[in-house]
Task: inverse folding
């Protein structure tokens, strides 16, 4: 099946710093990638849709200036959490759409902001 | 807006017992997908159901899609400890062109050996 990687798998940072998370589709081209956030024992909440070559579409309540998304190629999307604060600590998961109905999820990035 | 509800939220069973989780959408779905997330892991795609009344089996797992395409169920026969995890159903946003998914809150299954 299709493989999606994420880097880093976990990161600890100080409050006020920025963190970049990469999402790569390894064996297929993904025109669309999705970024989700999952708090402990909760479901996945869609943050934004990342489209190659165009601006990301953010869900209601998600600050576009805080969560910067760049989809520079058909295999790479990045999420940058700017000026991170402890409340941004979460599990961030990307998924890539392969052109079929199925989304393939990356392994996730666990962010802890001190 | 579109909602996908899932029950129960938690289910604890003895190994060997059966398990079922139910998913209900507020709108008719073009398809429904099921994912499993192990503790500490990420969601892994299990299956997609497309047709009204469709039933699919994967070994001990049986997936059903309702006739009205608004509800679905996942049934596990004779659970094993390897079945532990959270099972999510997900349906595409109504009219969504980018294939965004709405996830249910999930059912956490724990199995007592």
Result:
């Amino acid at each position: 099946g299709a493989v999606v990687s994420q880097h880093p798998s976990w990161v600890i940072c100080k409050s006020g710093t920025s963190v970049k998370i990469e999402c790569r589709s390894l064996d297929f081209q993904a025109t669309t990638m999705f970024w989700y956030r999952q708090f402990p024992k909760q479901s996945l909440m869609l943050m934004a849709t990342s489209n190659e070559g165009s601006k990301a579409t953010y869900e209601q309540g998600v600050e576009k200036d805080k969560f910067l998304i760049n989809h520079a190629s058909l295999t790479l999307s990045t999420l940058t959490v700017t000026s991170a604060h402890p409340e941004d600590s979460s599990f961030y998961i990307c998924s890539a759409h392969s052109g079929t109905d199925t989304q393939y999820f990356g392994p996730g990035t666990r962010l802890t902001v001190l | 807006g579109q909602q996908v509800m899932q029950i129960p939220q938690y289910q604890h069973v003895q190994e060997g017992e059966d398990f079922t989780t139910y998913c209900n959408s507020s709108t008719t779905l073009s398809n429904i997908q099921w994912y499993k997330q192990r503790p500490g892991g990420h969601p892994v795609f299990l299956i997609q159901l497309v047709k009204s009344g469709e039933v699919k089996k994967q070994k001990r797992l049986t997936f059903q899609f309702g006739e009205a395409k608004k509800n679905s169920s996942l049934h596990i026969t004779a659970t094993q400890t390897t079945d532990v995890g959270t099972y999510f159903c997900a349906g595409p946003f109504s009219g969504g062109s980018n294939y965004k998914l709405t996830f249910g809150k999930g059912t956490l299954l724990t199995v007592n050996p």
Summary: The radius of gyration of chain B is 14 Å.
